[in-house]
Amino acid sequence: METSPRRAVIIGGGITGLSAAYYLKKQMEADGVPYRITVYEKSDSFGGKIKTLHRDGFVIEQGPDSFLARKPAMVELARELGLEEDLTGTNPNAKKTYILSGGKLHRMPPGLMLGIPTRLGPFMRTGLLSPKAKLRAALDLVLPKRTSPEDESLGAFLERRLGPEVLSQIAEPLLAGIYAGDTYSLSLQATFPQFHSIEQKHRSLILGMMKNRKEGGAESRTLPEAAKNTTFLTFKDGLETIIHGLIGALDNVRFVKGCGISSITRAGDGYELVREDGELEEADGVIVTLPAYATAALLAEAAPGAAEELKAIQHVSVANIVLAYDENDLKEKPDGSGFVVPRGEGRFITACTWTSVKWLHTAPTGKVLLRCYVGRSGDDRWMHMTEDEVIRAVRKDLKETMGISAEPLFTEMTPLLRSMPQYPVGHLERIRRVRESLAAELPDVLATGAAFYGVGLPDCIRQGKETALQLAKRLKP
Ligand code: FAD
């Protein structure tokens, strides 16, 4: 007798949801279990935060623009989908990066790894820091390690090891920028667990990072070809390449877009999902891959414990503004990959990527593409302004920092409301509690995604895969 297919529903069609669907299908097929997978996406398109716009020969990312090459999940997935050849690294001639300090762009001292000095010569010579700050940072070499196993904030950790000036002038804009967060709120163990491990193993953060840099050379020999010699990778035709690749590979998966799921309840041995249009969908297992507040709303009735915990995870709203120029209109062509802006500079923009220099495929010859970011934890000025006002404020900053007063060929602004999950101190404990209470209340409903264990695209793919393998195990007859 034929067994009826196991019904799995994935909620959310971003990179986490689509990766989960891909690895679930693969595992169910490997296990020989008949299945029916459905992906529900609330908006009218798949990809979630990943959106690529092609305009006048430019390749414009409206959400994420690249991913860390050393985290293998994206490269492995690209290879499985036959897309490895489409990957590209950063321009090797755009190595210089800058920090705004006292209104001027200063070159970041070579040898900084995640904001931590690993070459003492350039660090001691940089004009970015006072002599006192450099001496304070050098104290890291002799300071004892912290013995408490409790989580602490990224800011408290870096200030303790390297002093307040290195934190505010270098580390904060680089590291907190990834989360649009506040270093004194972000959890060390959830954002940069490697710093915690280095302190425990080597005592000194600088010495430990130096050792890792040297060993990193050996590690890179095991990386796939595409990931060698570059810190970041992307796809030549834009990040949406991976989304199209996934959808193409999910030929027998049912996709429903323009219709979200509003609630999940237990029904007999399975689950009943209420769609936003009022229709019902039944499932034997579910993977939820939404922002924390949306997962909380979905689970509010059936899993109130998990929902309450998830509600406490804040999401910061940011926007990015792309400006395209004719190279001849600029007095100076940018030389490097861009700059970050410490909070203390009081600027409107938080960073600016010199996109067409960093990524050669993003602009036609003779054209320049810049991408500026606005908004971070504690600064939502842009949300109270019109698009014209935002663009005027961005152009003012570009004029005063880079001397650009030329009229752009065009601009594109992308608001991303409540898009950056914040991992506060104790985040990992909170996620453990979410998982525990969900397992007790809705055992075959698994929740994952950027609000859980990592916001980067490879982290999202890894989480989608791990969750899919877990569900496949549970769905085995
Ligand atoms: P999402 O992409 O948010 O997908 C969730 C999906 O669920 C959405 O499509 C949403 O419409 C849908 N949905 C919501 N509610 C429902 C519902 N009730 N029912 C059904 N569907 C629903 N990472 C990097 O690695 N590199 C970068 O350069 C980078 N830059 C970034 C820049 C910005 C501005 C932002 C905001 C993030 C950036 N990130 C970057 C992080 C990364 O983009 C995200 O963490 C990742 O894309 C999140 O993917 P996801 O699938 O978990 O969530």
**Which structural class should the secondary elements be placed in?**
alpha+beta
Q: Order the strands across the largest sheet as they lie in space.
A: 8-7-18-19-20-17-21
Strand fraction equals: 15-25%
Shape assignment: globular
Which radius of gyration do the C-alpha atoms yield?
A: 23 Å
InterPro entries: Amino_oxidase (IPR002937), FAD/NAD-bd_sf (IPR036188), Protoporphyrinogen_oxidase (IPR004572), Zeta_carotene_desat/Oxidored (IPR050464)
Protein name: Coproporphyrinogen III oxidase
Function: Involved in coproporphyrin-dependent heme b biosynthesis. Catalyzes the oxidation of coproporphyrinogen III to coproporphyrin III.
Cofactor: FAD
What does this structure look like?
This protein is α+β, with helices and mostly antiparallel strands. It is 36% helix and 23% strand. The protein has helices spanning 15-31, 73-80, 120-125, 131-138, 154-162, 164-179, 188-191, 193-202, 205-220, 240-249, 292-299, 304-311, 355-358, 387-402, 427-441, 457-475, and strands spanning 6-11, 35-41, 52-55, 58-61, 67-68, 87-89, 97-101, 104-107, 112-113, 116-117, 232-235, 254-257, 261-267, 270-275, 280-283, 285-288, 315-326, 338-340, 349-353, 367-374, 410-421, 445-447. It is globular and about 75 Å long. The two termini are 14 Å apart. The relative contact order is 0.19. Bound molecules: flavin-adenine dinucleotide. Flavin-adenine dinucleotide (FAD) binds at residues 11-17, 40-43, 48-50, 63-67, 260-261, 289-291, 294, 298, 318, 320, 416, 419-420, 449-450, 455-457, 460.
